[in-house]
Amino acid sequence: MRPSFINRIAIFCGSANGSDPAFRKVCINTAKILHSRRIGLVYGGGNIGLMGILADEMLRLGGEVTGVIPQKLVDIEVVHNGLTNLHIVPGMHERKALMTKLSDAFLILPGGIGTMDEFFEVFTWLQLGYHHKPIALLNTSGFYNNLIGLLESMVQRGFLKKDRYDQLIIGKEVTDLIDRITGSENRFP
């Protein structure tokens, strides 16, 4: 069953900064909004890229930050020290499963192939009924235009049900998405 209150949001985003300064700004803004609403962050546990920016800002503000990171990434020294909670897991499968368990919703910020892997896994799990948690996609600077087009094509071509696609919360502003996540109790069974 879907939780009645959003305590923690898992955020998937890049381990690189990306080429658009808007990506950095959106991470800082996201941290401020989460902190102001007393919503904790669950993320991949890294200290680099957008992940590091997001975690650093949450910590600077005094917010709760839970990292989940595979041992392999700890071994190459990309783990963020000083988090509120840190879970070191054997691999990527365990990482995604624990992040899903620890969170009440998902927010996808700009990122690369790892971010897409995480997004598609939680979206697949929603489709299969393994969870009933909201998933939001932040389309900063049109970053996800092509992904949204692909998903719409899947609907048009019969590979994705429209009602499942309509469960995705898609928008261009973090405040709007978090409003919709926290007010979306009636969207999910």
Note the topology.
Elements: E1 8-12, H1 21-36, E2 40-43, H2 49-61, E3 65-70, H3 71-75, E4 85-89, H4 92-102, E5 105-108, H5 113-128, E6 135-138, H6 145-156, H7 162-165, E7 169-171, H8 174-182
Parallel strand pairs: 1-2, 1-5, 2-3, 3-4, 5-6, 6-7
Biggest sheet architecture: 7 strands, parallel
What distance separates the N and C termini?
Answer: 7 Å
* Overall pLDDT: 94
For the record, the CATH class is Alpha Beta
Number of helices: 8
| Number of domains as seen in the coordinates | 1
Strand content: 15-25%
Could you spell the SSE succession in H and E letters? EHEHEHEHEHEHHEH
User: What are the segments in which pLDDT stays under 50 over at least 5 consecutive residues?
Assistant: 184-189
Number of strands: 7
What would you report as the Rg, rounded to the nearest angstrom? 16 Å
CATH fold type: Rossmann fold
Sheet with most strands: strand arrangement: 4-3-2-1-5-6-7
What structural category characterises the helix and strand content? alpha/beta
Question: Could you state the oligomeric state of the chains shown?
Answer: single chain
Q: Give the proportion of residues in helices.
A: 40-55%
Assign the CATH architecture.
Answer: 3-Layer(aba) Sandwich
Shape: globular
Q: Could you please describe the fold and organization of this structure?
A:
By secondary structure, the protein is α/β, with parallel strands linked by helices. It has one domain (about 10-185): Rossmann fold (3-Layer(aba) Sandwich). The chain contains eight helices and seven strands, in the order βαβαβαβαβαβααβα. The chain has a seven-stranded parallel beta sheet, with helices on both faces. α1 (about 20-35) packs parallel to α2 (about 50-60). The protein starts with 7 loop residues before the first strand and ends in a 7-residue tail after the last helix.
